[in-house]
Amino acid sequence: MLRTMVHSGMNALEHELQEVNAAVVRMLSQVREGVQLARRALVDADAEAGERCVAGDAQVDAAQHELESRCLTIIARRQPAAGDLRFLGAVLQALADIERAGDYAVHVARAGAELAKQPRVKKYLDMNRIMGILDEMLELTMRAMADGDQQTAREARAMDEEIDELYDQIQRELLTYMMADPHTIDRATTLLATARYLERCGDHLENVNEHILFWLTGERI
């Protein structure tokens, strides 16, 4: 529950802030579904999952635009102060990062469709692990947002470090494959790009949790 909603009688502003909070959590849930579908498209070569991931991105984009408009309307009409204004400012900043995380899930799904047409250069164990971490990050981020829980936000933010380490490992491994066998260069390059998409998705989720922490603590990380 939002920190501003501490008394039993909820005024109009508090009600609107609660609705915004719930809508942000729903948007994060949509991105989480997209990541799960992208994981199936890449790891399982599931073409239908990839198509559903791409199609679902329009809902994320629509949610971003609707929430941006709603936040600006609340600021203009209600003139919130202190913590309420900080919440709305944090949401406005977080929306772009949530939307970009969804975009990167789509990029992974599309790369999965392309890679499924050719023999695999390597097993996707590390990428599968990254996508598992992203799923956990999203679950924690949703909880941090819904509950106004800074400890959960810190836990989610810290998970990006393992993603960065796995990305570096994937880079080194794929470069080794390309040097050993030039015939793998095209596929390995696509995999490198895919790993980069996953790493960037993690970066944007890290940013979202930094925005949540700003809302809850007033401190910029």
Describe the structure.
By secondary structure, the protein is mostly helical. It is built from seven helices and no strands. Helix 1 packs antiparallel against helix 4 and helix 2 packs antiparallel against helix 3. The radius of gyration is 19 Å and the shape is elongated. The protein starts with 11 loop residues before the first helix and ends with a helix. The N terminus is likely disordered.
Instruction: Specify Rg, calculated over alpha carbons.
Output: 19 Å
Largest sheet: none
Distance between the termini: 23 Å
Number of strands: 0
The number of helical runs is 7
Task: Summarize the model shown.
The chain is 83% helix and 0% strand. The chain has helices spanning 12-43, 47-78, 82-115, 125-147, 150-158, 160-180, 185-217.
Question: Topology, pairings included?
Answer:
Layout: H1 12-43, H2 47-78, H3 82-115, H4 125-147, H5 150-158, H6 160-180, H7 185-217
Helix pairs in contact: 1-2, 1-3, 1-4, 2-3, 3-7, 4-5, 4-6, 4-7, 5-7, 6-7
